[in-house]
Every structure is written in structure tokens, then in C-alpha cells.
Write a structure and sequence with these properties.
This protein is of the alpha/beta class. The chain has a seven-stranded parallel sheet, sandwiched between helices. Strand 2, helix 2 and strand 3 form a beta-alpha-beta unit. It is globular and about 50 Å long. The model has no long low-confidence stretch (mean pLDDT 96).
Length: 350
């Protein structure tokens, strides 16, 4: 069976990674249904996906406004359509916010996902690609982070991702029909090369690149760099930044693995580039790509942040046949292309 007939439910599909993955899924011939509560996204992003893939492929895309915390929203969807697999992005994702509002994270990430897992089981849809996070590694004793490290989440956000991985593992142990891949993302940045899709957070951004974007277009006065006394070459924290299009392709690779590997059971893969870049190096690369000066304010470290984290990528290369193609130059180029065309994000369009 070709992938063209496979129907994929994408939760949180109107968000940053969801929209980019939806484009790649449609381009590869999958049918895509998005469910999103638009908590940190906008419906206009889904319209941009339609615009990018064109009128023919758009017919294979459906959007439903719904919330995973409301089981009826899921029941409605699953009772009407048969899904071959689910890519589960939906959730809140800010470390700092999770430290201040843990209940919000338990409610959204844990309860919403447990509902999803239950409804999937009920309707016999037992293939899952889960959006996990490098935060499950906490501050690892050594780097790069390898998938078989003992996880050590340092904040409520990271713990919700870790708990959801473990809950998935328990479900799979109880019912061997499930096939589950947990993708541990490092730091997704960049945008679609067209400049029509990108990261568009509501409120003050929690991630580096959309923050730089807003400074570059004059929406924010300067970039706050949290922590400048880390034991790193320039004192700023080191992360593994990965281009969102590489990340999207990683999901396609994981999905194909699920369809083709009967006994995969429950498996984890890092999606990163395998090399670390400091916050200040990223700022310099963006300045070069955009020709804009990014004023920086050095601030104290944030609680819950690690010094340096980057991925070991061998497992994904070997087992998924996937490897990141883009470097920080391309990430910054595409980020600036999106920022300069959409200074206010999606809201700037009439």
C-alpha cells in the first residue's frame, strides 16, 4: 500500500512544527487532518499550508478546532474518520512558564495526551509519533545526549514529556499491537524557505529565534540573553539548533518506519544536528544573515535551564535513514526571510 492513502491525524497541527510537517506530509501524498485548540497558534497558519501545497493537495487537508482535554472533541473526530497513525504535537512548551504554572502543564500536556491515547486505543488506531523533547535529558552528565541515557527532566515541562513517554511505553507493554516512536527534539528554528510559514508565538516569545525575529523587525527593543556566566567559551548556553524543515522530514521518516516495521514496539530517537551552538553565536549568525544589529541585554540564568545540550544523532541516521541537512546559516537565512515578509507574524496579513 502506498502512503498516498494513509490518513494521518496531526494534533497541534496549526503550530510551528505542525504546519511545516503538514506541508511535507501532503507533499508526500498523505491525507492530513489537523486538530488544534489555537491556544498558541492561529487558523491563518493552516490557510498558508493550503496556499503552499496548492489546490489539489489542499483537498487532502482538513482542519478541526478542538481540544484534547475535551474527550468529546476526539470522539467526534475518530467516530467519523479512520486514522492510520497520529503525530502528536499538541501541548504547551515553555520551560519558564511551566516552572511558574505547573498545573497548566499537567492539564494540557498530561490530561490531553492521556485522552488521546485512550481514544486511539478505542478506535484501534495504534501507531503514534510523539513530539518529545531534549528536556527529558535535563543537564546530562556528558554530552552528546544518547537515547539510552537515564532521563532526568529538570522542570515541569520536561517532566510532562518524560511522563508521556513512559505512559506510552506502559500502553505498548500492555498491548503489543501498538507501534510508538518518541522523537526527542532539540531546538527547532528557521522557517519554510518560501517565507510563508514560520514560528508565530502569542505574547512574548519564550524561544530564542522568534525573540530575535521580533527584535530584528522592531517589535521588541533588545534580546534578553539568560545566563552569560555558563562554563562555555562565550559564557552563553549551548544548544543544538535544528532547522524546522529537517525536523518535519524526521517525522516523515518516523512515520514510514512505523508503517514498515511490525515489531518496533516503543522506540526513542533524537532529532538534532549533533553539534552545539551558543546563544551568542546564533545572534551573530542572524545579524550576518539579516544585516540587522540585534541589541543584547545580558540577564541572570533562568531556573531550570541547562548549560550545554546537544544530540547524538547516530541512531536516527542508522534506523530512520534521516539526517539533518541544514546548518545555522540556512536556519538564520530562512528565519529572516519569514521575519522580513511577516514582521507581525500571521496577523500582519489582511
Amino acid at each position: 500500500m502506498g502512503f498516498s492513502e494513509q490518513s494521518i491525524l496531526v494534533t497541534g497541527g496549526a503550530g510551528f512544527i505542525g504546519t511545516h510537517t503538514a506541508v511535507q506530509l501532503l507533499d508526500q501524498g498523505f491525507r492530513v487532518t489537523i486538530i488544534d485548540n489555537l491556544d498558541n497558534s492561529v487558523a491563518a497558519a493552516v490557510d498558508r499550508v493550503r496556499e503552499l501545497v496548492g489546490p489539489v493537495l489542499s483537498k487532502k487537508l482538513e482542519f478541526h478546532l478542538g481540544d484534547l482535554r475535551n474527550k468529546e472533541d476526539l470522539e467526534k473526530l475518530f467516530s467519523k474518520s479512520k486514522f492510520d497513525a497520529v503525530i502528536h504535537f499538541a501541548g504547551l512548551k515553555a520551560v519558564g512558564e511551566s516552572m511558574a504554572h505547573p498545573f497548566r502543564y499537567f492539564d494540557n500536556n498530561l490530561i490531553g495526551s492521556i485522552n488521546l491515547y485512550q481514544v486511539m486505543a478505542k478506535y484501534n488506531c495504534k501507531k503514534l509519533v510523539f513530539s518529545s523533547s531534549a528536556t527529558v535529558y535535563g543537564q546530562p552528565d556528558k554530552i552528546p545526549c544518547v537515547e539510552d541515557f537515564q532521563p532526568m527532566a529538570m522542570n515541569p515541562y520536561g517532566r510532562t514529556k518524560l511522563f508521556l513517554e513512559e505512559i506510552a511505553r506502559d500502553i505498548q507493554r500492555a498491548d503489543s499491537e501498538w507501534r510508538m516512536i518518541m522523537l526527542r527534539y532539540f531546538n527547532p528554528v528557521g522557517a519554510h524557505e518560501s517565507g510563508k510559514l514560520g514560528e508565530n508565538p502569542k505574547g512574548i516569545p519564550n524561544n530564542l529565534m522568534p525573540y530575535i525575529h521580533q527584535v530584528a523587525v522592531g517589535r521588541l527593543p533588545h534580546l534578553n540573553v539568560y545566563g552569560h556566566d555558563y562554563p562555555t567559551p562565550d559564557g552563553s548556553a549551548i544548544r543544538d539548533y535544528i532547522h524546522v524543515m529537517d525536523l518535519a522530514d524526521g517525522h516523515i521518516a518516523a512515520l514510514k518506519k512505523l508503517f514498515m516495521t511490525e515489531n518496533i514496539g516503543w522506540a526513542t530517537y533524537n532529532l538534532g544536528t549533533g553539534s552545539g551552538t551558543s546563544v551568542l553565536e546564533m545572534v551573530a549568525a542572524f545579524e550576518k544573515a539579516s544585516g540587522k544589529k540585534i541589541p543584547v541585554q545580558l540577564c541572570p540564568r533562568r531556573p531550570g535551564d541547562a548549560t550545554a545540550v546537544y544530540a547524538a544523532t547516530e541512531k536516527a541516521e542508522k534506523e530512520l535513514g534521516w539526517k539533518a541537512k541544514y546548518g545555522i546559516q540556512e536556519m538564520c537565512r530562512d528565519q529572516w526571510n519569514w521575519a522580513s515578509q511577516n514582521p507581525m507574524g500571521y496577523e500582519s496579513q489582511p
